[in-house]
Amino acid sequence: MRYWGYLMAKLAAAAMLMGVLWSLIRWVFFRDSGQNPFAHDLGYTSAMMLFFLASAGLLYLIVWDQRYRCRTCLRRLRMPMTAGSWPNMLLFGQPRTEYICLYGHGTLKVPEVQITGPNGPDWEPHDQDIWKELESLEESKR
User: Fold this and answer.
1) pTM value?
2) What DSSP string describes the chain?
3) Given the DSSP bridges, would you call strands 96-100 and 106-111 parallel, antiparallel or unpaired?
4) Does position 16 have pLDDT exceeding 70, yes or no?
5) What is the pLDDT of residue 71?
6) What is the mean pLDDT of residues 18-39?
7) Domain range summary for the chain, segments of one domain joined by +
8) pLDDT surpassing 90 at residue 5
9) Which is nearest to 131 in space by CA: 103, 99, 100, 98?
10) Which residues pair with 78 in a beta bridge?
């Protein structure tokens, strides 16, 4: 719930920022005349094109940033590690990049290749005790 609330807050802040920019553009071009100058005034049409591109870019950056955040603590995921192998996909698994939360909340696995269609990133939450997994790996080696 916190993860999606943070996304909504970022989208709301971006919408307010773009709304202020929209109002500024309309104020600059509409203060002289009451009619819509779109497709009649090159300056206004260019400003609206740049506004649209800035809005789309800002939306992309918000979604991209949210994708690489921890689902529990909202911190950026760190320590990218590549796994799998390109030439040996059948032996070692498909290539992917794994990111981990520094506080041990979970791991995000992002596939590098999409053979069977678009595969989204896979978030795997961990237990509260992050050392439990490491101890079990160490005991299995003995």
Assistant:
1) 0.74
2) -HHHHHHHHHHHHHHHHHHHHHHHHHHHHHSS-SS--TTT-HHHHHHHHHHHHHHHHHHHHHHHHHHTB-TTT-PBPEEEEEES-STTHHHH---EEEEE-TTSSEEEEEES--SSS----EEEE--S-THHHHHHHHHHH-
3) antiparallel
4) yes
5) 87
6) 80
7) 2-67, 78-141
8) yes
9) 103
10) 100
